[in-house]
Structure formats: C-alpha cells, structure tokens
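2024-03-11 09:14:02 INFO worker-7 job=invfold-0412 stage=load source=structure_tokens
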C-alpha cells in the first residue's frame, strides 16, 4: 500500500513517514499542497494524510481537487475546532486526527480507512498487484500488464479464493465455463503464464494431485 504524506513541517513529515514505513507501507511525501497536486498527477496512491494549514494550496483547497471516492483522505492537523472537523469531513475526508497524536493511533486510523475503502472499491490488491475489476485492468508495481481474457479470469478466480486449493476441473468450469475433460493441461499453461507475467511464482502454489492455491 502506498501512502502520500502532505505536511509542511519536515520533522512531523519525517516522523509520520518513518512510522508508516515501519508498518510496511510505501510512503511518498510532499512539503505543501502544490507539490502534492503535481505528484498526484504522476503517481497512484492508496491513501493521503493531509495537513490543513500549508503554504501554496491548503488542505481544504486540495481535497476539493481529489476524487475521494477513489482515494481516502485523513486530515492530520493542529486545527482542532469542531467546525474545522465538520468542514473537513463534509469536504470528503474519511477521518480527522489532531496533532499531537500517538503513532499507534495514526496507524490504526490508516488501517481502518483502507479497510473501509477496499470494502466498497472495485480494486483488488494483492502484494505488488492492483486489479481493477470494472475495467479488467491489472497493474504490477504500478505498471499495467497485458493479460488475455482467460488469464485475467484465472487471476481473479485465484484472488477470490485466496488460500483455498482449487482443482483443475473447478478452474476449467469457472474460467472456461464448461467441463474441458482431458484438457487440464490448458490450466497448467495459463497458470504458468500468469506466474511469469505477474511475478507470482512463489504465490501460486502447486497442490500435488489436485491443482493450485494462491497463498496470501
């Protein structure tokens, strides 16, 4: 998961980044709203931690330009009045945390916002992959990977059944839509292709005499 930290105070920005990295998040940083706006044109992020009072473009102005249906936003600010909180939430923020705060609380709020967003999104994330189910687009390490229709269907089947062993007959029926008796080699070929294309050799395990399992 990639998080953008937008904070003009370097000490606070660095502290937040260090704590997020310790929790295994990838972190991008911006020193103000102008830098953040340009960065968002070039990079995809999963969540934004956004200060309110910043030079250039303040947090309240920047959130108006962000599609909060696709990217959850948490305000991290010293502005603690109820009116400011209400304004932030009405502008589309998922949460509002007031400085100073404990790192453990920040991480918990980030985890909650990401869970809530993923529950209602059309994006499946697995390790380095992002699968946009409505568009049938797959990205690996942020770059789009070309898959055939059957390769995509097979990947989505594995993602929907993580840590469950699927036999070849089940896979044939679910992906190809009918019983491909005597043609289970088709499954093996397609599994090999998505293993290679998507760097999933260690994640898609062969289950002896059964089929395959995608391990989380």
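2024-03-11 09:14:09 INFO worker-7 stage=emit residues=216
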């Amino acid at each position: 998961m990639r998080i953008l930290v937008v904070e003009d105070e370097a000490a606070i920005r660095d502290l937040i980044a260090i704590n997020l990295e310790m929790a295994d998040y990838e972190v991008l940083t911006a020193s103000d709203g102008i830098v953040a706006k340009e960065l968002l044109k070039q990079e995809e992020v999963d969540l934004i931690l956004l200060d309110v009072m910043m030079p250039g473009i303040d947090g309240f102005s920047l959130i108006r330009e962000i599609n909060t249906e696709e990217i959850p936003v948490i305000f991290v600010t010293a502005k603690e009045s109820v009116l400011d909180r209400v304004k932030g939430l009405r502008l589309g923020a998922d949460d509002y945390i007031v400085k100073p705060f404990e790192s453990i609380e920040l991480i918990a709020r980030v985890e909650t916002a990401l869970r809530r967003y993923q529950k209602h999104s059309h994006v499946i994330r697995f390790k380095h992959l992002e699968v946009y189910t409505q568009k049938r687009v797959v990205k690996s390490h942020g770059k789009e990977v070309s898959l055939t229709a059957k390769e995509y269907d097979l990947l989505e089947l594995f993602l929907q059944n993580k840590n469950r062993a699927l036999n070849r007959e089940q896979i044939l029926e679910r992906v190809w839509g009918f019983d491909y008796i005597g043609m289970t080699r088709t499954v093996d070929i397609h599994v090999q292709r998505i293993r290679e294309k998507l760097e999933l050799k260690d994640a898609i395990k062969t289950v002896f005499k059964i089929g395959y399992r995608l391990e989380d």
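2024-03-11 09:14:09 INFO worker-7 stage=report msg="The first helix runs from residue 10 to 22."
2024-03-11 09:14:10 INFO worker-7 job finished
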